[in-house]
Design brief:
CATH class: Alpha Beta
Largest sheet: 6 strands, mixed
Radius of gyration: 23 Å
Strand content: 25-35%
Order of helices and strands: HHHEEHHEEEE
Shape: elongated
Strand order of the largest sheet: 2-1-6-5-4-3
Number of domains: 1
Length: 162
């Protein structure tokens, strides 16, 4: 004879199972070719950043950042929030073409987190026109696939102490 307690346990387990199935993620894993394509698109954004920086075009360099108040740039003990504040930080730190030097990235690791999120880790180098390095450090970017392409939402950049 089945007791009321057994029926209640069965009902609660059944409801729990149904809720578990209903909460299952609907995000489909990316196929290997999609991951490769996403990494290439993100790498292309970073390559354009390098080109714009090395041409002294700070405004174009900033096009790879999301143009909103949601942007967060952290470096040292300072945090800039928003696209305009981040642009102003760069403009204050690098007031002319000569002070910008030449940029290159290496040690890039592009981790595809989902169809719309990517984490990028790497090292940057800034060199004078004579080839002497005046800045290097590590960075971590959180990038989002937006209607206007892959954009940096969060940038945490550190400077190596010489």
């Amino acid at each position: 004879m089945v007791t009321l307690r057994c029926w209640l346990q069965f009902i609660f387990l059944f409801i729990g199972f149904i809720l578990f199935l209903g909460c299952k993620s609907t995000v489909k894993p990316l196929k290997p070719e999609q991951i490769t394509e996403t990494r290439q698109r993100v790498k292309s954004v970073l390559e354009k950043q390098v080109i714009h920086w090395n041409e002294g075009k700070l405004g174009e360099f900033m096009q790879s950042y999301v143009r909103s108040g949601a942007l967060r740039f952290a470096s040292g003990d300072a945090i800039q929030r928003g696209w305009s504040a981040t642009l102003q930080r760069y403009a204050n730190r690098y007031p002319d073409r000569e002070s910008m030097g030449f940029l290159r990235f290496d040690q890039l690791e592009i981790q595809v987190l989902s169809p719309i999120w990517v984490e990028v880790f790497g090292r940057y180098h800034l060199v004078h026109s004579d080839g002497s390095e005046f800045g290097t450090g590590l960075f971590t970017l959180l990038m989002q696939d937006t209607p206007s392409g892959w954009k940096i939402l969060h940038d945490h950049t550190s400077t190596a102490i010489p």
